[in-house]
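ugh ok so i messed up the first submission bc i forgot one of the chains. this is the corrected input, ALL of the components this time, i swear. 350 residues overall. if the numbers dont match what u have on ur side tell me asap before i send this to the collaborators (the ones from the other lab, u know who)
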Amino acid sequence: MDTKVAIIKEDNINYEAINEAAKVIKKGGLVAFPTETVYGLGANALDEVSVKKIFEAKGRPQDNPLIIHVADKDINKYAKEVPDIAKRLIDEFWPGPLTVILKKSDIVPSVTSAGLDTIGIRMPYTKIALELIKASGVPIAAPSANISGRPSPTDVQRCIEDLNGRVDYILGGEESRVGLESTIVDCSVNPPCILRPGAITLEMLRSINDSIYIDAAIMNKPKEDLKPKAPGMKYRHYAPKAKLKIIQGDFQKTIEKINEMVLNYIDENLKVGIMATDESLPYYKVGEVISLGSRANLQEIAKNLFETLRTFDDKNVDIILSESFIREGLGIAIMNRLTKAAGFDIIKID
Ligand code: AMP
Ligand code: MG
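and heres the new structure output, hopefully the right one now
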């Protein structure tokens, strides 16, 4: 399949490209596009045949439902009911990186929700995404625009790498500002439950309703009796090709441990990447070292996480050693993605 690529500017939108991409959606094709979380791979959410193409292009398991992207807050057509708490979350956090799960109405085909009687729905704030949805005239079902299992793309080059030849159109814009997928809150249950942590943090959600809690299964290795409630959270995910290990503990001891491990791996002729921070960068003298940003700026760490994992893949390292982050605020989402990418391989030091 020929893939058309158009790169446009968020602050000076080329509507010719938007309209061309919208035409592809209307005709049942696939369009990758930028959002503030990560790039999405979109199709008409209300058309079964179009939605099936998303699963094929990504190699996505059929039981992993898609999030529907809308351009305004009027979602009554897609949800059977919108409880008060969902209305308040939408009022406060839309447009933005928050997905709410609601009881599905009949106009949304069951392939979109992977057979569930609920749907995930979100209004992104990236203008290119909003304009594309508006011009398409339909809600757009869009998972992350990567091949399933790989780290999600936060810029257009990564979309092209994964999807060129597999989709009809790639609409490029700026890098994703958040860099992690949306927070998912299940509002079809009471009290609402966070199924996936993201940039809308637990504290932010609790400022609206203090009974909201996090699904206990998502921060730990999935077990038989503790399975994540969001189908997608059970898969190995966000994973680079290299083996990723997280070193967790006191800052100085972490640096010492990483330096010791690097030397051992180099002895074994392995190529090692170190996922460092601005604060630790000067202490690593060997290996491929990349800083995720400053520990004082978790937004920066989140934004750079997936891109850094992909850069290590480009460098063909065998092992990546990562520092660990505080499990508070945005740090909960960062550690959720990092531990999943590492297959929960965490080395704890005292
Ligand atoms: P992605 O779009 O690739 O970020 O993946 C979407 C995520 O949303 C996956 O983890 C899905 O399991 C989750 N999701 C979407 N719809 C639902 C739903 N109705 N109930 C629970 N989780 C959902
Ligand atoms: Mg994804």
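quick check: Residues 64-65, 67, 101, 113, 116, 118-120, 143-144, 181, 184, 195-196, 230-233 surround adenosine monophosphate (ligand 1) (CB under 6 Å). that seems consistent at least. The CA atoms of residues 149 and 235 lie 8 Å apart.
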